[in-house]
Amino acid sequence: MTTEVYDHLANTSDSWYCTGFGNPNHSTVLYDIPTSMAYSVGSIYSSDSDKTCSTPSHTSAARLSDLHFDSTMSSIGSPTAASSPKPTTPSNHNNKKHFCIVTVNFQSIRKKGKDIVILVETISPDVIIGTETWLSSDISSSEFFNPSLGYNVYRNDRKSDAHGGVIIAVKNNLEFTNVTSGSNIEFIQLPKKKQMVIGAYYRPPDRVDDQYILKTYEEISALRSTHKKAVFIVSGDFNVPDIQWADNINIITGRIYPHRVSQRFLDLSHDLSLEQMVDFSTWNENTLDLVLTSHPAFMTRCKPPPPIGVRSDHDIVLFNTTHEVTRSRHPRRKILLWKKINQDNIKRACFDLCTSFLDRHFTTLDDMWSTFKTGLLGIIETHVPTKTSSSRFTHP
């Protein structure tokens, strides 16, 4: 290729093939390069003696010594456009606190108070759904759920049998209303612009009669129809091992229970537009503990922590959603600023209190304590500066 032909091709957008390199040219097709730089850009390596298009030979040391890097490349500057996008500020979506629900088959919750403390400290769920609580009306919730954990507990104990029963524990900083208890299920409602309705359900393995199954269907359907626009979640131990839920395949594959029992729960999921989210086994090789939700796209995580306690043989189901709920703010409180006190003024006030206290005649011990306590509180109120705490959530 002569110099005239090369210069002509370098100043056009035509593509051409170099027999020396074995590649087509790319300089003038993809980039806006000044005409004065076309020759130097076309070949990074240039030779004073060789004006043809060629590549350095790896076996010839003499040829490599004659080649030099074209210094004009250092003056090209930044390109007017680049294929790599500019780095953007990372979104804080992942920093938002997700709403966490855990479903636990307790198999007697009364003696699992320490296990519940460990569960709260490790996972810190917003809502705890419990099944097989095995409670009765003469057992107080404080016996197994320490009030210091900060949860409001709602129970639905079985009247005729000590086994069974469900429970819903909600963090006390969540605003919720409309607690509903049915014969087989417990529901709470969390208000927000888009409400959330959460239910706990347990089906005893021996209840396969049509009356019981139909009543369960009617109770859930009635509540679902009442809150059509709410985020609807029902979780618990359904005891339907014959249904295969994995990979969105909802078919009946087993014969442990009558076919009509499993079919009724499939109809419940289909008729109410609820999707089952648990795709792993929770008891042996069976998926008994389920999560049915009307908004599956809100789910960010569903995994099985190990069972709670020694006796329970069901894995816990942990379910996270991106739905935002209303959380109450911390009440403002008065903070005493002891570092800003005037010690001389407090000493004089305490001396005056002691003088008046000793000069006074008291008839009862309660009168003496009341006078002393009132005097000390008055000194603190008068001589100790204060400020009001913020109501925002902050880390301790």
Low-confidence stretches: 27-76
Helix % is 25-40%
CATH domain class name of the largest domain: Alpha Beta
CA-based gyration radius? 38 Å
When the domains are counted, the total is 3
Output the helix-strand order.
Answer: HEEHHEHEEHEEEEEEHEEEHEEEEEHHE
Strand order in the largest sheet: 7-8-6-5-18-17
Shape: flat
User: Helix count, per DSSP?
Assistant: 9
Average pLDDT for all residues: 80
Give a count of the beta strands, DSSP E runs of length 2 or more: 20
- The CATH architecture of the largest domain is 4-Layer Sandwich
Strand content: 15-25%
Write the layout of secondary structure elements.
Elements: H1 3-10, E1 17-18, E2 23-24, H2 27-30, H3 38-42, E3 45-46, H4 61-66, E4 68-69, E5 99-105, H5 113-123, E6 127-131, E7 151-156, E8 166-171, E9 177-181, E10 185-190, E11 196-202, H6 210-226, E12 231-237, E13 243-244, E14 251-252, H7 259-271, E15 275-276, E16 289-293, E17 299-303, E18 317-321, E19 334-336, H8 343-359, H9 365-383, E20 386-388
Parallel strand pairs: 5-6, 11-12
Antiparallel strand pairs: 1-2, 3-4, 5-18, 6-8, 7-8, 9-10, 10-11, 12-16, 13-14, 15-16, 17-18, 19-20
Helix pairs in contact: 6-7, 8-9
